[in-house]
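Narrative summary of target 7.
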Amino acid sequence: MTTTTGCRAVIIDDETWIREGLSEHINWEVLGIELVQVFQDGLEAIRYMEEHPVDILLSDIRMPNMTGLELVARLREMEKESRLLSSTKVIFLSGYGDFKYAQEALRLGAVDYLLKPSDVEEIEVALQKAKMLCANEDAAPDKQEQKVAEEPSSYLIKKALQMMSARFTEDLHLNQIADELFVTSNYLSRLFRQETGKSFSDYLSMLRIEKACELLGSSNLKIYQIGESVGYPNPRYFSEWFQKQKGMSPGDYRSKHA
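Modeled conformation, tokenized:
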């Protein structure tokens, strides 16, 4: 185990080579995280954490005796019973790309959900996020006022944002994204606002206005062509929408920024 002071972390995975790899190849000292124990299943881990609270949990999902999801559900119960003002930051590392697992992980407040095999760098980024959340809680004058928006975007919302960034020029709707992510539109809408602070339509509008402004300032495309390129084929609607967003017409914006 490492001896670095700071956040305390544990690893849980039923595969020996993964436990050893995570222990040896992640630069725990540089991250400022102390790896205190490694376990092969959730039952072993929960018994340890009943007596030794930890800050960060890096866990597989499918394991014998107690799954990662069952473990974290029990951990949340323990935190509630003890009336703890902070919670263990959980990162799931799983070989199962089933969004049902991701959805449950989000419900349990996971910081991230990574699919195996993941690069060491990707895991270290997730660990750094978890450590920052721990530091924010420690620094907060009143932890009970800590807001959940402070959490980084979850695995599901990251995927939704990637899809939106790639397809914002299309006639894109929330239910399309929800269908492709195998969740309900109501669930995605609620989670999207919780994670980003914006509604799906507001976020989509933000992506489109940023691109429209970029094209108006740097290209020779006609205004109607720019409207088409950001998902508004109706020139009048595009001009009205742009005026509402920026407080000036597309032509005035181009004159000011070209």
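The chain has two domains: 7-143, 153-258.
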